[in-house]
């Protein structure tokens, strides 16, 4: 189970939390952060509503790092120390600290946390340019390899299932090992120009290595990850963040799944024969009696 989401207090406004998370994300972007600092940044984005109220000790405990690491993180962002960073957060993103009144049980809290993740994703999609650019890259790649290992394999498989209805050649890469590089090479030899990756925690080392290899082979890498500070960030040409839920024993990935569908829509917009392919599939499915409805 990732993070410290179980039992997290509800904030007074989902919209306010989404806005605070977006502002935090913007604050952290453009800084070269170490893996430990990215972990702190990720923790703060996930806890955006309460982040301005944490002490350095509390934040260190939540992120699973040392207190001096939190201080160095604040300095890396250009502040004199953590108190200055916290003061800045309170000034630019004021929000009421959440209060857990016991009105929601842990299952309901997990659902509400996912709703917050979706609101955050909606706020990020206010600028459609990155998704539109990703759609162009994916549509032009023939073949299009789609990578997703371990926890992310379901996201990659779901995208591939639907993408094959409109794209002429989509190749699912859902198994690691020594054959993974061979399959990347095969896609490049066949004319592939881009790779789509779904990367979710915990991030397998072989995913990071595969993306590094793919870029070295000449592929443009589009990545859907749980955070802009994920380990795959430095190995992606275009990273689209969508947070995962951590309130249950196993992470939930509603936002990454929805972002995958948004990417499908953007890709369809760049494929002139997408609608014709869908209509052909529907006609054949009817002829075969494929569906019970």
Describe the protein.
The protein is of the alpha/beta class and 293 residues long. The chain is built from 12 helices and 5 strands. It has a 5-stranded parallel sheet, sandwiched between helices. Helix 1 crosses helix 6 (106-124) and helix 3 (56-63) crosses helix 4. The radius of gyration is 21 Å and the shape is globular.
Q: Kindly identify the CATH topology of the largest domain.
A: Rossmann fold
CATH superfamily of the largest domain: Glucose-6-phosphate isomerase like protein, domain 1
Strand order of the largest sheet: 2-1-3-4-5
Main beta-sheet strand count, sense and barrel state: 5 strands, parallel
Shape assignment:
globular
Detail the poorly predicted runs. 1-15, 95-101
User: Which H/E pattern describes the elements?
Assistant: HHHHHHHEHEHEHEEHH
Kindly name the structural category. Answer: alpha/beta
What's the CATH class label of the largest domain?
Alpha Beta
Number of helices: 12
Percent of residues in helices comes to 40-55%
CATH second-level architecture of the largest domain: 3-Layer(aba) Sandwich
Beta percentage is 5-15%
Distance between the terminal alpha carbons, to the nearest Å? 39 Å
**Number of individual domains:** 2
**What's the count of strands?**
5
Alpha carbon gyration radius: 21 Å
Mean pLDDT across the residues is: 87
Layout of helices and strands, plus pairs?
Layout: H1 14-28, H2 35-46, H3 56-63, H4 67-76, H5 82-92, H6 106-124, H7 129-140, E1 144-147, H8 153-163, E2 170-173, H9 179-189, E3 194-199, H10 205-216, E4 220-225, E5 238-241, H11 254-270, H12 274-288
Parallel strand pairs: 1-2, 1-3, 3-4, 4-5
Helix pairs in contact: 1-2, 1-6, 2-3, 2-4, 3-4, 6-11, 7-11, 8-11
Domain HTH rpiR-type: 20-96
Protein name: Transcriptional regulator
Organism: Streptomyces varsoviensis
